[in-house]
Predict the structure.
Amino acid sequence: MSQNAIPAPIDDCQRRLGLIDTELTIIERETAAGADHTARRNDLTAERQRITDELAKLNERWEAERDLVAKIDAVRAKIDAATATTSGAGDGAGKSDGQTERAALADLSTRLRTALTLAQLLYGGEQNATTINMAEFKEEHKVSLLMGSPPGYVGYGEGGVLTEAVRRRPYSVVLLDEMEKAHAGVQDVFYSVFDKGNMKDGEGRDIDFKNTVIIMTSNAGTDLINKLFADPETAPDAAGLGEALRPELAKFFKPAFLGRVTLVPYFPLPTAIIRQIVTMQLERIRSRVRDSYRATFDWTPELVDTIAARCTESSSGARNVENILTRTLLPELSAEVLARLADGKSIQSVKASLNTDGLFFFAIN
C-alpha cells in the first residue's frame, strides 16, 4: 500500500461505509414514516460491521508499513557513508514510481525473520518470501542457473531460480542467503537489477524487479563485529560499524557491487535481550505443559542466566537458545515426564533448574 496518499483499499472501504450510512439514514427516515425495512437494515448493519473490521485491519497494516519504512529510512540515515543504492524512486532511468527496491547486506542472525516480517508487512503474508541459498552457486558455471539456461543448454525453458521466483511473484521479498559464498560472477548479475530494475532470464524475457525487496545476507566481518563489541564502552554506533566493516566486505564483494547496495549491519544482541528471548521460549514450554498435562511449569533465574551465557559464548548467538531448549532441555524434560507417567503418578507442577554440575534438573510433583 502507498505510504503517503490514502491507499486505494482503505479509500474504498471508507467510500462503502459512507454509502451504507447514507442508506441507513434514509431507512430510518422511512421507518419513522411507517415503512418496514427491518430485513434491509439488518443486512446493511451486518455489512457495515464487516467493512469496519476490514478497514481496521487495513489501517493497522498501513500503519505498520509506514512505521517499518520509517525505521528502514532511519537506519539508512545513520549509515550514510554506507548507503549507495541506485534503484531509488526518481533516481535515474528505468526506476519505478512504486515500491522502492532495497538491497542490503545483513548479518545472518535474524536474516530469515527479517525477510518474513517484511513479506508480512509489505505484501500481506510470509508466503511472499523466497529464500535462495547462495552457497549453491560457488562454481562459475552455476551462476547462469539464477537466470535460467540459455538456448541449447540443459535446463533451457525451465526458468531461472531467481528470475522465475520474481516472475511468478513480483511483489515479494527475496532473501539471498550467505551471499559471500557465491561465485564473484553472481555480483555482476545484479547490476542491471540495481541500475534498471530488471533482469533478462535465459529465454530473453525482461523480469521486472522494481516491486521486489532484495535482502542479501553475509557473515563477512562477524569476527570483527564481535571484537568491536567486546567492550560496550567502546562499541561503535551504526555509522562507525558500517565503516569498520567496509574493508572486510571488500574481501568478498566488488567495489561496484558495494556501491549499489545499502549496508545494514546487525549489532550483537546484548545478554539482557538474550535473557528475554530465553524467557519467551520458556513461556512457550509453560503453555505446552499446561495444555498437555494441566500442570504448571516454572524455572529459576539461574536457569535463564546459564542458557543466556551459553548463547553469548557461542557464535550462533540467540539462535542457540532454541537449539539448547529443543535438543537438551525438552528431551530431558520429556523423559522425566514419561517416566513419571509410566509409574502411574500424576503431574501437577514442574520446576526447571540446574544441579551442582550445571545440568538441567526437574522437580516434578
Observations:
- The CA atoms of residues 14 and 114 lie 32 Å apart.
